[in-house]
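We include this case.
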Amino acid sequence: MPLRQFSRQQAWLLPPTLGELISDDHPARFVAAFVDELDYSAWLELGVGLDGQALGAPAYHPRALLSVWLYGFMTGVRSCRKLEVACRDQVPYLWLTGWQHPDHNTLWRFYRDHRQQMRNLLKYTVATAVESGLVDLAVQSLDGTKVAANAAGDRTYDGDGLQRLLDRVEAAIAELEAQNEGGDDPSPARLPKELEQAQALKQRVQDAMSRLLRNKGQINLTDEDAQLMKGRNGIMPGYNAQAMVSPLSSDINSKRVIITAAEVVTSASDSRQLAPMLERAEELTGQRTPVTLADGGYHTAAALEAGENRGQVLVMGERYQKSCTGPYFKDRFEYDAESDSYTCPHGQRLHFCGLRKSKVTGTRDYKVYRASRTACRTCSAFGLCTRDKHSGRALWITSSDMLLLRHRAWMRSREALALYARRRELSEPTFGVIKDQMNARRLLLRGLANVRAEFSLLAAAFNLRVLWATCSKMTT
């Protein structure tokens, strides 16, 4: 077949318009429409003025800068230098900026000055989805993932490690000071560069030590808020990112979800995150979702109490499921309210013998029931039920045990099992998209406040991707 003629010196045959550069269903157009729909009050919440200044050089329009950042987060470009390059040679960015070329300093200043207020963008994306009737708020799913911090793993120290580092730094400072002493030359107007750097490191180490004394544990000198956490690639300094998601409406025939709440915490455990995320999701959606799915990492008596107090059904796995299924687990003991005693599976009676203090709260919130040591030692289950030769089997009962018992019974029902089967398909793909398609396996900012702003913007960008894909599908 013949070849097409081409020339790299080809001139425009007709002056093109910016609208001809990208298709009508391009995601950049959706981002621009979303930003253009933000009203004056929304821009005030973002801390951005749209009127400009009367004096000085003309500034880039905030709509253009915000559009660049949102589209960058959607497509995995979160570096201001990479965004500067994209604004010069990538057509979608050229269209978003109106063929203008903001440099990385301009882009960075906008992001730095407004990133905390830009957390409100997640609220606006959720409101857009809810008001459009795209979200099924009958069920929601909560999950967390470990995200690597912008910090070096070998810069994490405990108290002894910090002291050894401080000793080395002080020795280096003494050596540098000795090198600059002697002779008749006048003292320099400022410290030598090497000494300045050593002094700065010493100050950082001392600050870290004082903070470590308050909080104990370990601290990272690169990012003091980052904690050592176990990820899929081993131990790393990182953060625990949380996301509550709800599926799109069933009539859309899609497996996509919307993030209705997002947060970042420094604790590697999920056990205390359920109640705050329930409140945050209700705040952003304006509705209380009746059913919440979560894995065993969130299972605590406090979480179940929070769900019961809020009237929300929790479909949640057991944290220590194997230990709860044994033949001599305390749920197998029958309680008799009249005699205030329990009966073990072998018919032996456990009588109330007093209150005990909790090691956590320090209050007397445990009722202890104990069997006869003679009965336990002669029982065929001795060694399985208990190994205590001196006191016999004991049950430590709290006010939450009945709540835990009801929840275990509920989780064995067909309805709960069917709902729990949906948890994985709702939550886990969300983090897969964020990490792989949006290039967010590692955070770029440092400090908990900044990391929270960064992940919130990632969640807003995730929602915009879903809304764009859904709207494009509905219009075809």
Q: What stands out?
A: The first helix runs from residue 27 to 36. The chain is about 40% helix and 15% strand.
